[in-house]
């Protein structure tokens, strides 16, 4: 179902994770290509972090299998961990150490020769703009700097694949864009990047392809633009209708796909002028038509907003 002509570096087949009575991930299939940025997009609790943890062998699968560079996570977890760098959502940096010391201690886990470690750390400090902060204690860094250091640390063993769980959660807009720039740069240098996010604009900005995750299932899969076109169409007109009676009247006079959330109606269509004139005729009020987004896709598929 989810196949591509490009070379897949990660494949999930019937991936399932159950915690007692909770079915966290329900028989999902996915295929992630080498050197692409792939995103699992969904609200908190959707199952996307659980999928990631199974990919990097943090937790076992209940059933199904995942193959990373041709290796099964069931049979070769140690080898797979050597191929993957992980930057988790939690700030798990060592606060008693400086920026440089955090990277140095982490490099010891991979048995890198000391000279290789020193060279790699210097390259990462330069790449992430952390050279001037190398002797700074972690506690004195801003949120954005800490996140950069977490990503730098995940790259210490020069992995083929970088996994980032909610890479910009809790960051201010400036720091968020710095992390975006970093991801774009890493991808251009040949890394395969997986990220989870609940930020719709982040997925549209960064990801070549996404899996829209909800309730432990993958609802849609493909490039952001393709998914929007397939599920919604090009444009949306958002109407505010204050009473239930008016809502019923407006719905009867509008043809095409409509989604209701409270007192708002979302009307979907491709031709912006036809969409606008239809909605204005139904409401008697001037209306604004905007391009459709992944937020609209999620709303149509689940009946709720992504936020």
TrEMBL record:
Residues 10-240 form the ABC transporter domain. This is ABC-type multidrug transport system, ATPase component. Belongs to the ABC transporter superfamily. The keyword Ion transport does not apply. SUPFAM superfamilies: P-loop containing nucleoside triphosphate hydrolases (SSF52540). Keywords: ATP-binding, Nucleotide-binding, Transport. It comes from the Archaea. GO terms for molecular function: ATP binding; ATP hydrolysis activity. The keyword Protein biosynthesis does not apply. InterPro entries: AAA+_ATPase (IPR003593), ABC_transporter-like_ATP-bd (IPR003439), ABC_transporter-like_CS (IPR017871), ABC_transporter_ATP-binding (IPR050763), P-loop_NTPase (IPR027417).
């Amino acid at each position: 179902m989810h196949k591509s002509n490009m070379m897949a570096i990660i494949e999930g087949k019937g991936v399932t994770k159950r915690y007692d009575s909770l079915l966290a991930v329900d028989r999902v299939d996915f295929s992630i290509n080498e050197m692409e940025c792939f995103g699992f997009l969904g609200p908190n609790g959707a199952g996307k972090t659980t999928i990631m943890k199974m990919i990097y062998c943090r937790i076992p699968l209940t059933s199904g299998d995942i193959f990373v560079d041709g290796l099964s996570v069931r049979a070769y977890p140690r080898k797979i961990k050597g191929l993957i760098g992980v930057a988790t959502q939690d700030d798990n940096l060592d606060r008693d150490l400086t920026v440089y010391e955090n990277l140095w201690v982490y490099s010891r886990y991979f048995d890198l020769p000391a000279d290789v470690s020193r060279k790699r750390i210097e390259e990462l400090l330069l790449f992430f703009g952390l050279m001037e902060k190398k002797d700074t204690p972690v506690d004195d860094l801003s949120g954005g700097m800490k996140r950069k250091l977490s990503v730098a640390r995940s790259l210490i063993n020069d992995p083929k694949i970088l996994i980032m769980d909610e890479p910009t959660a809790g960051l201010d807009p400036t720091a968020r864009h710095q992390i975006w720039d970093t991801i774009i740069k890493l991808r251009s240098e040949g890394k395969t990047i997986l990220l989870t996010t609940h930020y719709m604009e982040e997925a549209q900005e960064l990801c070549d392809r996404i899996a829209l995750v909800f309730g432990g299932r993958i609802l849609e899969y493909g490039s952001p633009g393709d998914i929007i076109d397939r599920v919604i169409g090009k444009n949306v007109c958002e109407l505010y209708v204050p009473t239930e009676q008016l809502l019923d009247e407006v719905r009867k006079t509008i043809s095409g796909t409509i989604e209701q959330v409270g007192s708002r109606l979302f009307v979907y269509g491709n031709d912006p002028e036809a969409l606008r004139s239809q909605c204005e005729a139904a409401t008697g009020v001037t209306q604004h038509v905007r391009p459709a987004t992944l937020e609209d896709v999620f709303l149509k598929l689940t009946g709720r907003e992504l936020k």
